[in-house]
Design brief:
With 459 residues, the chain is mainly beta. 11% of the residues lie in helices and 32% in strands.
Length: 459
């Protein structure tokens, strides 16, 4: 999961709460994106991004400076209960560039991995795209029968890093309208959820996640609480310069669902979760084409690229059932078709369909929770309800990102189909090493376009 490390006087700035502080004005960095129509006519929309509330400084009172959360523990005097935190604590506005390494220019967003600032350092970030003209609502995308296009530059991201662009079914207003304890809302980046049902969120449904809070053994500023925040997730892009994957994750619950116990799917109960945590991934290297993506590959990660993802329905309408998730790339003026599966026992698929998912899981000997929870049809249902765009950069304290760019799981031989996912060694990805060795890493996203199939890109 994502984590932020901010050391010094205001340790840490990653805590979250639901009142709004008055020490730092909240100014969302502006960014543009385009909506397109059939024929390729596109209209530029002026929007902005907002930092997730988990990164923000939480303090007692709206103008105070006493931390509600320090290191990786809550102050039990201020936060004696979930509701007490809501009454006692406020989250602050953010210095996006100076503290968090987040900057925009026109249609580009740059997320720096490590940012040194006057109080220490910040590691990683997560932001959401706002509705144009609004500081109080996230932009909602309905993806079925549409395509989503963006540019990516991952040239400064090595093993163990993930520059992610994805959609989750979080509430449009961050939960402010549904939960009286949430006074901050989307303006301050509240309401996050995903298919992993993360427990490290410090605020869920307007209450602090203080019950049973356990500090992390590897992250000095993170921990886990009793509750998780689950929702459907469409990973358009999880990538560094070595490997990339796009992955849908279905859930049996609609929207943000606060889980507890078995339904969260923790540890050995993974496949009892309300969400499919594994998803059905298409990673070109894992699917048998080891030269397609990477430095000097067919898709050359030394240079900027355009990534196109199409969501095909059974009847070619916005309300038809989702049947296929298709990928294209554009680089140096050339349209590059997605790689084809080159695995014995599998058809040469080049997109995500239910048939691909069934074959992949069978050949790789993986649990097929994606199909068990409804497959593309249920993924499409979440898309029809609407999803929020997330962009982030992070290192992985749980599995060191081996599931993306190395061999994983570690208890299977590398020769087994599906285990090898990239060229990174299994010793790579430890966050403390990534932070020290790749302090200058950054993810750049830009050129966002959304519209009917075939409207958002040109060779």
């Amino acid at each position: 999961m994502l984590s932020s490390v901010i050391l010094g006087l205001l340790l840490p700035l990653l805590s979250s709460a639901q009142l709004v502080g008055t020490n730092t004005p909240e100014q969302h960095p502006s960014i543009s994106f385009a909506t397109c129509s059939t024929g390729g006519s596109c209209t530029v929309q002026q929007s902005s991004v907002v930092l997730d509330s988990n990164w923000r400084w939480a303090h007692q009172g709206t103008s105070g400076s006493t931390n509600c959360y320090t290191g990786n523990a809550w102050d039990s005097n201020i936060c004696s209960s979930p509701s007490a935190c809501a009454s006692n604590c406020a989250i602050e506005g953010a210095d996006y560039s100076g503290t968090y390494g987040i900057s925009t220019s026109g249609g580009d967003l740059t997320l720096k991995f490590v940012t040194q600032h006057q109080y220490g350092k910040n590691v990683g970030s997560r932001v959401y795209l706002m509705q144009p003209g609004s500081n109080e609502k996230y932009q909602i995308f309905k993806l079925k029968n549409k395509e989503f296009t963006f540019d990516a530059d991952v040239s400064k991201m090595g093993c163990g890093l993930n520059g992610a662009l994805y959609f989750v079914e979080m509430p449009e207003d961050g939960g402010k309208g549904a939960f009286s304890g949430n006074k901050a809302g989307a303006k301050y980046g509240t309401g996050y959820c995903d298919a992993q049902c993360p427990h490290d969120l410090k605020w869920i449904n307007g209450e602090a996640n203080v019950l049973d809070w356990q500090p992390s053994a590897t992250d000095p500023n993170s921990g886990t609480g009793r509750y998780g925040a689950c929702c459907a997730e469409m990973d358009i892009w999880e990538a560094n310069s070595i490997a990339t994957a796009f992955t849908p994750h279905t859930c049996s619950k609609e929207g943000l669902y606060r889980c507890e116990g078995t339904e969260c799917g923790d540890g050995a109960e993974r496949y009892q979760s309300v969400c499919d945590k594994d998803g059905c991934d298409f990673n070109s290297y894992r699917m048998g084409n080891t030269s397609f993506y990477g430095p000097n590959g067919v898709v050359n990660t030394n240079a900027r690229m355009t990534v196109v993802t199409q969501f095909i329905t059974t009847d070619g309408t916005d309300t038809g059932a989702l049947k296929e998730i298709r990928r294209l790339y554009v680089q140096n003026g050339q349209v590059i078709q997605n790689s084809k599966v080159n695995i014995p026992g599998m058809t040469a698929y080049d997109s995500i369909t239910d048939e691909f998912c069934v074959d992949q899981k069978n050949v790789f000997q993986d649990n097929n929770a994606y199909i068990q929870k409804g497959g593309n049809k249920v993924m499409g249902d979440a898309m029809e309800r609407g999803m929020v765009l997330v962009m982030s950069i992070w290192a992985d304290h749980a599995a060191h990102m081996l599931w993306l760019d190395s061999s994983y799981p570690l208890d299977r031989p590398e020769s087994q189909p599906g285990v090898k996912r990239g060229t990174c060694p299994t010793s790579s990805g430890d966050p403390k090493d990534v932070e020290s060795q790749q302090a200058n890493a950054q993810a750049v996203f830009g050129g966002i376009k959304f519209g009917p199939i075939g409207s958002t890109f040109r060779a």
